Amino acid sequence: MEYELKRGRYRELQEGELRQIVEEVFGNVREEGQSLVASFGALTRLETKLIDKSTLLVNTTSDPSVAQEIGLETIKRYNIFLEKATGLTSKERRNRLQKKAKEGKL
To answer: Between 3.30.310.190, 3.30.1960.10, 3.40.309.10, 1.10.10.10, what CATH number should domain 2-103 receive?
Structure first.
């Protein structure tokens, strides 16, 4: 999934902050090419990389058979990651996505 970045976030993320965020939120991170890869709880794989100055790509693979508590903690951490990485709250991300959909840009 592609997420829009808040204006000015690209430079900070490009200078190593993205790696710090992934490590802080998920506890582990490794590089695979230009992507950062981590895993946590129900996320067996989270792969993220900067596409351009306004876009962060995040691909996830999850295990639906984990306990409910682990699933809830995974969702919580994923949302924390997105907010720290994009600089946008979930409400702001939703509003921008709705605006793009109305403009036919999806």
So the answer is: 3.30.310.190
Question: Where is 80: in which H helix or E strand?
Answer: helix 68-86
Structure token pair of residue 72: 């809830």
Full strand arrangement of the beta sheet holding 30-32: 2-4, 55-62, 43-52, 35-40, 30-32
DSSP 18-57: HHHHHHHHHS--EEETTEEEEEETTEEEEEEEEEETTEEE
Query: Among 103, 104, 105, 2, which residue's Cα sits nearest to residue 51?
Result: 2
DSSP state of 87: S
Query: Would you give per-residue pLDDT tens digits along the chain (106 residues)?
Result: 999 999 989 998 988 899 999 999 999 899 999 999 999 999 999 999 999 999 999 999 999 999 999 999 999 999 999 999 999 999 999 998 898 888 887 6
